[in-house]
Amino acid sequence: MKNRVLFILLFGVYLFYACDSETTANFPTQITQDCRVSDSIFEILLDDAKLICMDFYTNEDMEELTEIEFKEYHFAPILAALQIVYLDSVSTASLDIKKYDVHALCPEQLHNSHIIVDTTSINIQSWKEYGFSDNLNLDLLIDEYNLQLDSIGKENYTVRTPIGINQDVLSQELAKFPFIYESQSANCIGDGSHIEIVYFSSDFIHLIYSYGWGNCPSGCMNRHYWELGIYGSGAIELLAESGKELP
Questions:
Q1: What is the pTM of this model?
Q2: Burial of 205 (0-12, 13-18, 19+ CB in 10 A)
């Protein structure tokens, strides 16, 4: 009998420490793809994480994002949290978020910049026809980020990148070339579903998912919110749910 009681006590202590260690597990600071997440979904969540990261660091006046490529430690924890929510098959909130396909607003902000150029420049002509500009510094950017040039009329062009990068910083770099008169990152046009971050630490992230519907190109008339607390251990907590009843 004493051995049985001792076993129960020891087992209880083990469970306590095991659970406690799980709740304090840290999110990764490097990009990690869960094997259960397909490549196509992972790319979408990757863009989501970068957009959430941009908004958070800008709105909170935190460390300025001054490089074309985001540092992994900025967005990798957010990406891990997004994958946890996507893979969750228990929480009704997670299931609804997947059902209504809720993602961060305006991924084109990560992939497009608009430039006005000197169409008589041999550098622009070469870039348009052959994919390189014959300008060493610009060609380094073209090669590193696979910059694609698409005409949108006269001297106006869109610069597209297959991977999500900090288009604000890229635009600043492009504007330094004398044959590029103006350069700016794509603006967010319209409205829709969104994800924003309220708070995050090494082991906990507070996200607000929102689904918008009803005339969203001009401004969604209806919106539903899920506030989730995601732990580095993989646990999810529904902190609040509000807004209009889902359609």
A1: 0.85
A2: buried
